[in-house]
Amino acid sequence: PESNMCEIPDLDDKYRKAMKEFAVGIEKLAERLLDLLCENLGLEKGYLKKAFCGSKGPTFGTKVSNYPPCPRPELIKGLRAHTDAGGIILLFQDDRVSGLQLLKDGQWIDVPPMRHSIVVNLGDQLEVISNGKYKSVMHRVLARTDGNRMSIASFYNPGSDAVIFPAPSLLEKEAERKNEAYPKFVFEDYLKLYVGQKFQAKEPRFEALKDLENVSAHPILTS
């Protein structure tokens, strides 16, 4: 989409310029990483970017978040556990204050602050296209007492009308698992479902879309 940087109030021109250059660089990095994922999956270069395109191309956005210090962090949740709905997410964490955790093997693991580093996270759409070879990551942010935490997250997502489905070549390589394939859907439809279920498990979302896919694949017979 077109940049809306000029519409955001209370930013000076130097900051706007820096953020615009930052976003351009991060978007290019996201596309390079997508091609590395293609290589690892055995897909042709550019497959994932093309899968995200829709009629107007992928969508890209950057979100700056502020988590103020909290004197009683045990009483609140900074950001509840969830997976991201979209494609690939590149995150600049605060380089001093921690808080980000990811779920691995049933345990919450701290992602420590590291200066000049980018945390790469995968969203639900890459899980679908890879037919589960890659998994979207459950993560959360804890409230802290030890300072103000800032983060800059950039989201490289499919276009709203992009049709998302498992890469056929991956299904061919796993013919015995075709019955376990992820559903086919329009990304905007997934987002509508996600809005009300963001902080719930992702599997029921996939199953709900699979049920809709099965219904639409079987036309109603009329006499």
TrEMBL record:
Organism for this UniProt entry: Elaeis guineensis var. tenera (Oil palm)
Coiled coil: none
Catalytic activity: 1-aminocyclopropane-1-carboxylate + L-ascorbate + O2 = ethene + L-dehydroascorbate + hydrogen cyanide + CO2 + 2 H2O
GO biological process: ethylene biosynthetic process; fruit ripening
Name of the protein described by the UniProt record: 1-aminocyclopropane-1-carboxylate oxidase
Record Pfam families: 2OG-FeII_Oxy
Pathway membership, UniProt: Alkene biosynthesis; ethylene biosynthesis via S-adenosyl-L-methionine; ethylene from S-adenosyl-L-methionine: step 2/2
Source superkingdom: Eukaryota
Keywords assigned by UniProt, alphabetized: Ethylene biosynthesis, Fruit ripening, Iron, Metal-binding, Oxidoreductase, Vitamin C
Cofactor(s), names only, from the UniProt record: Fe cation
Gene Ontology molecular function: any one: metal ion binding
EC code(s) of this entry: 1.14.17.4
Family, as annotated: Belongs to the iron/ascorbate-dependent oxidoreductase family.
Domain Fe2OG dioxygenase: 58-158
